[in-house]
Amino acid sequence: MNSAPRESYARLFLRFLRFGLLAWGGPVAQIAMIRQELVEDEGWISRERFNRALAVYQVLPGPEAHELCVYFGMLARGRLGGILAGLGFMLPGLTFMLALSWFYVTYGLASPLFAATFYGCKPAVAALVVRAAQRLGSHALTDRWLWGLALLAALAQLLAVNFLITLAGCGLAYALIKRQWPAPAMAWAVIVPAMAAASAAAPTVWELLGYGLRTGLLTFGGAYTAIPFLRADAVVAGGWMTDAQFLDGLALGGILPAPLIIFGTFVGYLGGGLPGALALTTGIFAPAFAFTLIGHELVERLIANRALHAFLDGVTAGVVGLIAITALDLVRAALPDVTAAAIFALALGLLFGWRSKAATAAAVLGGGALGLVLTVAMP
Which residue in 17, 103, 105, 338 has its CB near the most CB atoms, within 10 A? Predict the structure, then answer.
């Protein structure tokens, strides 16, 4: 039963803008905030319907909290309501990230205070990626075949095989193992972008839009799965960023009130300025809008098709392998000395030992504070 109020477009936009301003603590905290107000307090939909909708978005690529905002906006005021709700939720993080990207490019880290803070943030962010790989692997690698595919994907990453070909291969291989042949469109949706992948030191706006679309369509399992894809485009193939700069972007994304995937705005800004940032961000978030606006019920029927489950499980196993190798590369870049290694160890201990929605922000902010103290305040 749908009891969503028919709010004015302005009020609907402002409601989700407020959600965006309060979107600290990662997807778990963001989803809990949305559920508390719209389901528990105001009863827009039943708890059971919310759980079903969330289950669908957890299977689909893209940031679940943002997709839920589009879903609730559409319940209230149709497709335009969905667009306004999604834009409202992402606008604060986008605005903050654009401002920080401009400051970063214009002034860099010339200030000793900024340099010291980022020095401590980088090993903490590397710990976040390691923890994300472990968490995703513990849920996704449920049998020996999936473990094997993850290891093969990691090996392919070391051998510089195009990651999209790797993911398509993992999906098709597991579908064959489980004898659940996927719809051909699912495999080609992964393989065709791999054929179109380009390497360019100075990407065009259209190339950045394409990178964003690939990322948005392949982020199964949460925003952390976007990390190897964007790094492959920006650092490995494109070369318009270094690993150190990539870690800076991740650090900024980890402390903003936004889905972590907003760090893609930073990647796009370094690749093509403001137009590049907007193009890459548009590509990343377009699927999150489209899945609901095109038809949530159609998506639910698609996910219910068991013939696709094995393909998606194989793709996710491949993503785990890619993240594992990416994590190793980022750890090497983030730990130039013993002090950085100590910050990394502390952050990793915090993330594994403290099961709080505030752990992510605490690790990044704490790492920055330690970097400031250890490199500036102490004689």
Answer: 17
Q: Kindly list the distances between the CA atom of residue 305 and the CA atoms of 216, 277, 374, in Å, as whole numbers in the listed order.
A: 22, 36, 54
For residue 175, pLDDT beyond 50: yes
How far is the C-alpha of 195 from the C-alpha of 368, rounded, in Å? 40
- Rounded Cα–Cα distance for residues 6 and 46 (Å): 17
Final residue of a domain: which of 71, 88, 105? 88
pLDDT tens string 213-267: 888 887 765 667 788 888 888 887 777 888 888 888 888 887 777 877 889 999 9
Decide if 64 contacts 58 (C-beta within 8 A): yes
Number of domains in the chain: 2
41/134 same-domain check: no
Q: What is the pLDDT of residues 46-61, one digit of tens each?
A: 877 787 777 677 667 7
Task: Please indicate, yes or no, whether residues 115 and 74 belong to a single structural domain of this protein.
Answer: no
CB 190 within 8 A of CB 218: yes
In terms of Cβ atoms closer than 10 Å to its own Cβ (0-12, 13-18, 19+), residue 41 is exposed
Q: Please tell me what DSSP assigns to residue 222.
A: S
Q: Pull the structure tokens for residue 274.
A: 């403001």
Range of the domain at 233: 93-377
Residue by residue, DSSP assigns 132-194 as HHHHHHHHH--SHHHHHHHHHHHHHHHTT--HHHHHHHHHHHHHHHHT-PPPHHHHHHHHHHH
